[in-house]
Design a protein that fits this description.
By secondary structure, the chain is α+β, with helices and mostly antiparallel strands. It is built from seven helices and nine strands; from the N terminus they run E-E-E-H-H-H-E-E-H-H-E-H-E-E-H-E. This is Gas vesicle protein.
Length: 269
């Protein structure tokens, strides 16, 4: 790949790492990342082909789920490797610049903000916690609509009995949802005491949620000092299994993706 003709893909900004990245590490387009240093800040970059990352081409690629997934995996692999040797500020997926000069200009113009964020996340990692409401009472079919094999060998259910049963089912579901909300609020409050910051993301639904997981009722990220991560995980572990019908899921540690506001993605500035 001719680095003088291609664009510059930026994975993250950090301070000088304490150790080199693994020699076999590759990033987007299968190219090893390198460090571009400017006044104490380091941008971790690699060349990418203009045919894929120029503005119009990138917009088209972002509709290609296979291409997007492969690019995201490569991006994450570089950021994860960086997190083992420094505390990176990850930039958004597909943040590209025309050349090294464009990257340096970004570091210069954004210097104050970048340093402020790096100071805030230094020594911290991100943990994700989700709570899922699983099971629950199924919806009752309308009277007389059950398949023949499922109909009991007794007198047909009256409309009054059907409505009474429906009200009881709705009340049980409402009570279950209310208990789940109390549990979620308490858990979030407890976890924030171990975190320097927290973010409540929109709950997952539709294609983002596994149909077998249940209904997502908490989707949160926590910026936790590395020194308190063990305590944080112990608290999550104690919460797991304490409420029937609720499942707690923890992921991480990650670089602080939810606690940065890097340059916008979307092609060459």
């Amino acid at each position: 790949m001719n680095v003088t003709d291609d664009l510059r893909y930026v994975y993250a900004v950090c301070r000088p790492p304490t150790a080199p990245l693994h020699a076999d590490l590759t990033g987007v387009a299968g190219v090893p990342p390198r460090q571009l240093v400017h006044e104490g800040l380091v941008a971790v970059v690699s060349p990418v082909p203009e045919r894929d990352f120029a503005h119009d081409a990138l917009r088209a690629h972002l509709e290609d789920l296979d291409w997007l997934a492969a690019t995201a995996r490569a991006h994450q692999s570089v950021v994860a490797a960086l997190a083992t040797v420094t505390c990176p500020l990850p930039l958004r997926l597909a943040t590209v610049f025309r050349d090294d000069s464009g990257v340096r200009a970004m570091l210069e113009e954004e210097s104050e903000r970048l340093r402020r964020i790096l100071d805030r996340i230094d020594g911290h990692v991100e943990w994700g916690v989700k709570v899922w409401l699983v099971g629950g009472a199924p919806e009752d079919p309308a009277p007389g609509t059950e398949p023949p094999a499922a109909r009991p060998s007794r007198a047909p259910e009256s409309g009054r009995d059907y409505l009474r049963r429906r009200r009881a089912g709705n009340a049980a579901r409402e009570e279950s949802a209310a208990r789940a909300e109390v549990f979620t609020r308490r858990l979030h409050g407890d976890l924030t005491r171990y975190a320097a910051d927290a973010r409540l993301h929109p709950v997952q639904s539709g294609p983002l949620a596994d149909a077998g997981s249940g209904r997502n009722i908490l989707n949160a990220a926590y910026l936790v000092p590395r020194s308190r991560s063990e305590e944080f995980l112990e608290l999550v572990g104690r919460a797991e299994g304490t409420r029937p019908g609720l499942r707690v899921e923890v992921t991480g540690p990650w670089a602080a993706y939810s606690f940065t506001d890097g340059p916008e993605a979307g092609g060459v500035p």
